[in-house]
Amino acid sequence: MMGRALAVRLRIRGAGDEAVVEEAEEIAAFVRRLAVLLGAGLHLERAWSQLAPPGGRPRRGEGQVPALIRRVAAGAGSAPLAARVAAAATAAGSGAGASARSWCALAAGLEVADRTGAPLARSLDRLADSLVDVARVRRDAGTALAGPVATSRT
Known about the structure:
- This protein has 154 residues and is mainly alpha-helical.
- It has one domain.
- Helix content is 75%, strand content 0%.
- Helix 2 (18-39) runs parallel beside helix 6, helix 2 (18-39) runs antiparallel to helix 7 (120-152) and helix 4 packs across helix 5 (81-90).
- The protein is globular and about 55 Å long.
- It starts with a helix and ends with a helix.
- This is Pilus assembly protein.
């Protein structure tokens, strides 16, 4: 009985769910590319729009990460970038779980850099490292718990 409760909790949290891990890695890759463009001297809004997928509408089969990036880029000028990222992250499309937390961490970093003048490229590079580490821990936890979860089903 206790094993079944563990399995239910893991499914709710998404630990080890490959799609969740891949999405976290995709967010980390985007943050790293953003850091590289900022390090090369691009303005934040310009760097974001450069990384946004082309076109105004999501494509069939497109994941949540490119769709969110496009949605934020489409709202350029309407609000600060950090506010647009946070709003898009908490919207219905990506409001659940680890991806929303990753986007909100990015929004917080953008807001802090905007208010304090902190060097954003280095901060984003470190944030990307942290997001990769979190994804790695999720994957490792899913692997480590696969046996006990499978055993609890029998």
